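Quick note —
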Amino acid sequence: MSEPLSSGAARQRVERYYELVDAPDLDGMLALFAEDAVYERPGYEPLRGKEELDRFYGSERVIDTGRHTLDDVIADGDRVGVRGRFDGVLKDGREVSVRFADFFMMRGDLIAERHTYFFTPSV
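Predicted structure written out below.
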């Protein structure tokens, strides 16, 4: 079993995720996730495992290009919370700017869980 990361190392790992997903470097980004990682985001069934993450980021994700701006990153042990904004272009050509919050759970030096929330009217 892996040793837990320090809060600082967990924070750096999550910040690296955003760099790689924006690059885009799919292989590098996937290497940050545990084999059985779970990713939950609005509008999708939970993504379970690297194979589903690969499929989502490789073909299903509606984002074509863009950049995450991180306003706050708070790490406490193996948990990291992020508040920020994404600006980009969707595959249909529309430009988007959306605020988000992400919560990560680390297992050793890998991301075991990610939960994304968007700041859009829904209720």
